[in-house]
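Format notes (please read before filing issues)

Several people have asked whether sequences and structure tokens are stored in separate files. They are not. Every record keeps both together, in the order shown below: the sequence lines, then the token lines. Line labels are part of the format and must not be stripped during preprocessing.
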Amino acid sequence: MDKPLVAVVAGPTASGKTALGIEIAKRLGGEIVSADSMQIYKNMDIATAMPTSVEQAQAVHHLIGFLSPGEDFSVAKYKELAFEAIDDILSRGKLPVVVGGTGLYIDTLINNTEFLDYEKNDIRQSLEQRAEKEGLESLFCELQRVDPKTAERLHINDSKRIIRALEVYMSTGKTISQQCELSHLNESRYRFCVIGLTAENRQYLYDRINLRVDKMLEAGLIDEAKEFFEMNPGNTAKQAIGYKELKPYLDGFVSLEEAAEKLKMETRRYAKRQLTWFRRNDKIHWLSVDTTDKDSLFDRACEIINSER
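Then the structure lines:
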């Protein structure tokens, strides 16, 4: 018996994933499962480009706006909730359409990645204390010695993942890279058809990003950012692009123009990292948003998915 098909729409920010996902859901009888690590949070609509009420009315959406920004979240929890949503959609004879730009979330679903679940323990507490006393650079150097593969892909200031990687090694004797390889041995429960959005002319995408930031500011991003920092957000929510870039302006250190330019630059950099991540998947069906009109792009995406149903 064939495994059930799950459609995926992936790509960088501002590439048009939301519109394509909705169109696929409307044409092929589907429901959308978000794969955006920040759209899970409430009251962050503008910064995360949350689907509007009009867009949500066009197709059922799952896993958006359900968590308080004060709560942390994990990819393991995302996988659990996403599989629940996908199974629910399939049980009703509909097509799950996973839509988002968080590559780790999407890869976790495709690879059926298994995660070791560690509770707060003495090892983690010891590492956190060492980070405070010795500095994070010391732990990063240790990670470079025991797990250079993981250290190579982490930023030296990424305290959460550096401590996590050392914790896994000290708890199991295996590096997190080895654990990851073992976790991918599990056969996936679904078939995936992945549509990737890109732009042959990178400047076209960057122009869309710049325009999006301008529209976000016009829509009230400044007020949303003020409310965000008043909510005492958790560590996961604090990673959202759109607020931390405005904090110097809110604190009176830079002009709004400087903060807006910083936000545009960081968003462009994020889009570049997203494309780099997704390019590693040689099974993605790529469609260029700058060389194909919208209707033709919608038609082609649905044709590709239907060919695999």
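For reference, the curators noted about this record: DSSP finds 14 helices and six strands in the chain. The two ends are 13 Å apart (CA to CA).
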